Amino acid sequence: xxxxxxxxxxxxxxxxxxxxxxxxxxxxxxxxxxxxxxxxxxxxxxxxxxxxxxxxxxxxxxxxxxxxxxxxxxxxxxxxxxxxxxxxxxxxxxxxxxxxxxxxxxxxxxxxxxxxxxxxxxxxxxxxxxxxxxxxxxxxxxxxxxxxxxxxxxxxxxxxxxxxxxxxxxxxxxxxxxxxxxxxxxxxxxxxxxxxxxxxxxxxxxxxxxxxxxxxxxxxxxxxxxxxxxxxxxxxxxxxxxxxxxxxxxxxxxxxxxxxxxxxxxxxxxxxxxxxxxxxxxxxxxxxxxxxxxxxxxxxxxxxxxxxxxxxxxxxxxxxxxxxxxxxxxx
Length: 331
Known about the structure:
Blueprint: E1 15-21, H1 30-36, E2 48-59, E3 62-68, E4 72-73, E5 78-88, E6 93-101, E7 108-114, E8 126-131, E9 137-145, E10 149-158, H2 165-183, E11 190-196, E12 204-206, E13 212-221, E14 227-229, E15 237-239, E16 246-248, E17 266-272, H3 283-298, H4 303-309, H5 316-322
Antiparallel strand pairs: 1-11, 2-10, 3-9, 4-9, 5-8, 5-10, 6-7, 6-9, 11-17, 12-16, 13-14, 13-17, 15-16
Helix pairs in contact: 2-3, 3-5
């Protein structure tokens, strides 16, 4: 059938889709979600906590790392150890290293956790080491040789608890996928393949998921398995101004006539979404996702049942927030 320039939606044509490139980010970031759940104070200063492992002051001679510092629980936190050196006594030296432990009783030296030796040549300075190990507890031990030396060691913890990060990230993705299912849209830019079993009887076919950005390619495969990529603007036109977007035949052009491959003979690869960043997604959608995650997070015992029943969205407020963005289309 020749194109008339107007076209109609696909009806009665079998189709399916497959994800090619997943969204690079989520509409709601992990940090935004933690702020929403009040897991963070939102203030950098309030999110810091300090443990004096070795109290600042003059420390007398202590051989073979017998000066033991207090430990700190750093599980789920980012931690940095700070050695603040005052003035060493004449010829005095200070050696400090980090130890870690699973049980806060048996400590072992952490590899990469030794500070540069402090002498009279480099005292009155600050050294820092970020703890990147996996143990729950850390402390420092020190040797002070030849003379009394002035120093202290603190453990700084960034008090944004990360122990829930994996769960929250999973819930954000699950809530986003459910919201996409409800609205029949894709939010963050992603690439999909639309598979057709035949070209439509009309002059156009609809691209699913709304917010069509571009069509990468339109190709068909014959019974021998040979693929032909059609030429945009001459063999087909892309309508990104409609929502959902469409593939439309130009005037006087017909769909190709060919003996189709037994399955998925026609592939349209396309890019869709509001944009590549969370800021491009409407606030109503992001709010709905946050509310879904909050419900799942606060009722985590029911997560398994909710995910398997497909009933993540049960809240009327969530439904109301998503309703204006729902895509109504017939495929």
